[in-house]
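User: Hi! I have a protein structure encoded as tokens and I'd like to know what sequence might fold into it. I'm fairly new to this, so please keep things simple.
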């Protein structure tokens, strides 16, 4: 018996809108059956699917789990993500890594690290 990482789930107010943002981040498309209640990104690809589920309650406080991304053209990617609707929150240079903390359109925090 083994366990695999199937989905990374995001609770959100509008599944289609948030899936569209994250599809843009990953330079892909929202899977065909997405709507405001449920949407996925990369369901047919290898690796975990990003799954977006509409929930009635708003996000409360800082998310305890977040996505870490890495980019070789780090500055350009951060600018691109801000252009998609991300909000730049903070910049760090610790533990041998330089990264920017951003928030997606619904306030979920994620990081983009400089990848050499």
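Assistant: Happy to help. Inverse folding works backwards from shape to sequence: for each of the 116 positions I chose a residue that suits the local structure. Here it is:
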């Amino acid at each position: 018996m083994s366990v695999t990482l199937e989905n990374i789930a995001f609770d959100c107010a509008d599944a289609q809108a948030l899936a569209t943002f994250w599809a843009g981040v990953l330079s892909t498309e929202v899977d065909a059956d997405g709507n405001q209640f449920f949407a996925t990104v990369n369901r047919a690809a290898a690796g975990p699917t990003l799954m977006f589920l509409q929930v009635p309650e708003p996000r409360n406080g800082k998310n305890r789990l977040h996505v870490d991304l890495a980019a070789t053209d780090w500055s350009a990617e951060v600018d691109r993500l801000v252009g998609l609707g991300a909000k730049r929150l903070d910049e760090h240079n610790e533990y041998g890594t330089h990264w920017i903390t951003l928030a997606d359109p619904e306030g979920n925090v994620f990081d983009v690290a400089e990848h050499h």
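A useful reference point when you look it over: The beta strands are 7-12, 38-41, 49-54, 67-71, 87-94, 97-103, 109-114. Feel free to ask if any position seems puzzling.
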